Structure formats: C-alpha cells, structure tokens
Amino acid sequence: MFQFILKRLFYGFLVLFGVIVIVFFLFNVLPGDPARMMQGQRADIASIESVKKEMGLDRPLYIQFLNYLNDISPISLYDKINTNSSLFLNEQNYKPFVILFKIGQSKVIVLKQPYLRRSYQSQRKVSDILSEAFPLTALLAGASMLFACLVGIGLGILAALKKDTFFDKISLVISVFGMSLPSFFAAILMAWIFAFLLSDITHLSMFGSLYSVDNFGRGEYLDLKNLILPAITLGIRPLAIIMELTRSSFLEVLSQDYIRTARAKGLSLYRIVFRHALKNALNPVISSISGWLASLLAGAVFIEYVFDWKGIGVVMVDGLEKFDFPVVMGTLLFISVILVFINIFVDIIYGVLDPRIRVQ
C-alpha cells in the first residue's frame, strides 16, 4: 500500500510540473507588457525599465522560469548575496521560512510558503486574492456535490430496484436530459424561472448579495438563500451522471451469485442493499464523485458569473480580461493542485475498497 501511495504522489508531481511548464511559457509568449500595466500608459521608459529589473523581466526566459519555480516551490534556494534571484526574497512582510541546510557560504535551502507573486492591477498578493475567493467556491461546490450525491445515489438505487418500471424509464430520461444540459444554459434558465418568473413565491434574487447586514447593523453574515439556485444548477449534471452510474453498477452487483445467495437465505431487502450490495456498487460512483468535485472546486465559471458568485472562476476570467497574468497563472496552478490531490486521495480510497487496484 505504501508503494501504491508513493507511485500516485510521483505521478501527481509529474502532472503538476507539466502544468507549471505549460502555464509559464504560454503566458510569457502572450502580448502585453507587465511593467507598463503596473506603471500605467503614461509611465516613462526609465520607470518601466526599473520595474522590469525589479521583477526580473529583463533576464532570459529560462532564468525567469527557474526563478518562478523557486518562488512557487515550498522548498527553495535562498541566496544571501544575490537577493534578486527570486521575487519572494524581496517581498515585504513575507512569512518567515525555515532553513533546512546550507550550500556553501551564501546559499541555503529553505522551507517556505509558495509565493504566487502579485497582481499587476491591484498589487495584491495572488495568494490573498485566492484565499478570499476559494471559500465561496468550496461552499458552492460542496453544497452542489452534497445535493447531487444524496439525490443521485438515492434515485439510482430506486431505479435499479424498480428496473423496467415507469420510474426507471423516467429516471433514464432525466439522466440523459441532465447530462446534455449545458451549464450556462441551465444557469440562465434556472435564474429566469425562479428568480424572475417565480420571485414572488420563492423570494429569491438572482443578483442578491452573498452577504447581508443583520437587523442591528452590527456586521455581515452569509445569506444562504442565495446559495440555493447556484448549488442546484451546478449539481444537475453530476446528479444525472451519479444516478446513471449508481443504477448500472447496482444492477451489475444485484446479478452476482452472493446476492442471490443472500436472497435465498431470506435476508431482508434492506440488509441486501445496504450491507452487501452498496459497498461493492459504489466504486465507480466514488471515482465519478471525485472527478466532479475537483471540477466544481476548480470553479464553475458560468454559474458563478450568472449568479454573481465571487469565486475562483470569476477571479480567473477577470484576470484574463485585464491581462493580469500572475492572477491567472496562480489560479490555474491552484486549480491543478486541487485536481491532482483529490484524484490521488480518491485513488487511495479506491485502492482500500478494491485490493485489485493496489495489485495492478
């Protein structure tokens, strides 16, 4: 099991390194002058050149790439003499790092917090921007996935137990409809129906603020009623896929010999379903849930935009519109880390549930 975990971690590291290489070189060949963006269009040449030197943009591209790796890596090289080798060394109020060991007279290897640099537009740390946006995206993704899992697994089990009945056929229609419904169209449709046509009944507002002030004006609190529509809309597609996977997997498990033996022994339907069939039927469902959870955490851009939900997706699109490359690069790397580690975690759970995976 230990070798299995190490192998998954190694593969995840290779994926992250590939993403870093692609993201860095892709955004460094795009048009746009970061120094001019920071100084404004009326800045003089001397100011622009000074900013380029401070940010290391006057150096060869491969040197910039090595410095970028040194910034974002938790284990970095610190040069006491050449302090311009990486931007995190010149960052004011940067969190202290731990010295691991020394290399020569002036260089040490340190353990630090990854530094994603600063926004060209707002001059804020990218890590601060992401720390504000991610909790909202995590809340939306978690609520959507909870809704999709509870409803999808429940309907899938019922459809499998009532095979070839009217309920089973209706569930298949709902599943196909949910999987084929584009997220941007679903968001607009749900907002139009519930936030406009039925607003007098639902009391929902499509563009309601995420935070509301209490009656005494003492502070803000998260208004959870504005979570209902985006969570349901975001959970439609994973719900349809989870329901169909649960149904097909349950039908396969219910046809196994040990299930027929359990029925022949007179066990109740409840014990057969929840004690014997459910665990073995959930393996493909867990893989699907992990993939969708990682995808939802990465940010449902259309859902967040339509419902004015200030999550990671909105941050990334806003950065693209303003050519704010550090924000976009930091967001993509953050999303990649989420995807990789969730997939590794699910692979480990999958290996625990099914020993054949560890052997393979």
Search tags:
6% strand; single chain; flat; mainly alpha; 16 helices; two-stranded antiparallel ribbon; 360 residues; MetI-like fold; 2 domains
Write the layout of secondary structure elements.
Blueprint: H1 2-28, H2 34-39, H3 45-55, H4 61-72, E1 75-79, E2 98-103, E3 107-111, H5 126-161, H6 166-180, H7 183-197, H8 199-202, E4 211-213, E5 220-222, H9 228-254, H10 257-264, H11 269-281, H12 283-297, H13 301-306, H14 312-321, H15 325-353, H16 355-359
Antiparallel strand pairs: 1-3, 2-3, 4-5
Helix pairs in contact: 1-4, 1-15, 5-6, 5-9, 5-12, 5-15, 6-9, 7-9, 9-11, 9-12, 12-15, 14-15
Please provide a written account of the structure.
This protein is mainly alpha-helical and about 350 residues long. The chain has 2 domains: about 35-110, no CATH class; about 125-360, MetI-like (MetI-like fold, Orthogonal Bundle). It is about 65% helix and about 5% strand. The chain is built from 16 helices and 5 strands. Strand 4 and strand 5 form a beta hairpin. Helix 9 (about 230-255) crosses helix 11 (about 270-280) and helix 14 (about 310-320) packs antiparallel against helix 15 (about 325-355).
Secondary-structure arrangement, i.e. CATH architecture of the largest domain: Orthogonal Bundle
CATH topology group of the largest domain: MetI-like fold
Main β sheet profile: 3 strands, antiparallel
The whole-angstrom Rg is 25 Å
Cross-sheet strand order for the largest sheet: 1-3-2
Order of helices and strands: HHHHEEEHHHHEEHHHHHHHH
Distance between the amino and carboxyl termini? 12 Å
Class from helix and strand fractions: mainly alpha
Mean pLDDT: 77
**Overall tally of structural domains:** 2
CATH classification class of the largest domain: Mainly Alpha
Strand content: 5-15%
In terms of per-residue confidence, which ranges show pLDDT below 50 for 5 or more consecutive residues? Answer: 206-219
Fraction of residues in helix: 55-70%
Shape: flat
Number of helices: 16
CATH superfamily of the largest domain, please? MetI-like
Give the strand tally. 5
